[in-house]
């Protein structure tokens, strides 16, 4: 009898709180890689057995990320005041954590009670490149003189001359 009452109370808690009922659907990311320190926009919506939940939302939506091991919650969160739908998804801007090495992160949005999505979106986070520019004239330029600039450390370059080569 005690077990039956406990199960009934636990079931009422789960049904009334929504704990574990809703599923956060994370929209695929618009890009596959980004530099450390950049910001990415995460979009998501909530379903409960394929439809918008009928119970009231509560708490906050929070961004989680991880490289390996357990997901880490971030301080990036928004109040959970309404359910977001596929046609009108929620949006959170997330600052990518700093890293000195290339890492692949899994990013996803959760709310209290939702589980980790089965296939969270992933993104490759690249460290900022170390760029250097050298010149063939080591000291200074006088009016009318020219210098050749050589850049290194990146794949592409953008000079004020609109050239995209590493030497101008």
CATH superfamily of the largest domain: Macroglobulin (MG2) domain
Helical proportion? under 10%
- Overall, the morphology is elongated
Order the strands across the largest sheet as they lie in space.
2-8-7-4-5
β-sheet strand percentage: 35-45%
Tell me what the CATH architecture of the largest domain is. Sandwich
Number of helices: 1
State the secondary-structure class.
mainly beta
The level 1 CATH classification of the largest domain is Mainly Beta
What sequence of helices (H) and strands (E) makes up the elements? Answer: HEEEEEEEEEE
Question: Could you explain the architecture of this structure?
Answer:
- It is a single chain.
- By secondary structure, the protein is mostly beta strands.
- The protein has 2 domains: 22-126, Macroglobulin (MG2) domain (Immunoglobulin-like); 129-168, no CATH class.
- Helix content is 10%, strand content 35%.
- The strands form 3 sheets. A 5-stranded mixed sheet has the order 2-8-7-4-5, with no helix packed on it. A 3-stranded antiparallel sheet has the order 1-3-6, with no helix packed on it.
- The longest helix is centred in the first third of the chain and has 16 residues, at 2-17.
- Mean pLDDT is 75; it is low at 1-20.
Describe the structure using short key phrases.
168 residues; mainly beta; 2 domains; disordered N terminus
Question: Quick recap of the structure?
Answer:
This protein is mainly beta. 10% of the residues lie in helices and 35% in strands.
Q: Topology of this structure?
A:
Blueprint (H helix, E strand, L loop, with lengths): L1 H16 L5 E4 L6 E3 L3 E9 L12 E7 L5 E8 L10 E6 L7 E9 L10 E5 L5 E4 L13 E4 L16
Parallel strand pairs: 2-8
Antiparallel strand pairs: 1-3, 3-6, 4-5, 4-7, 7-8, 9-10
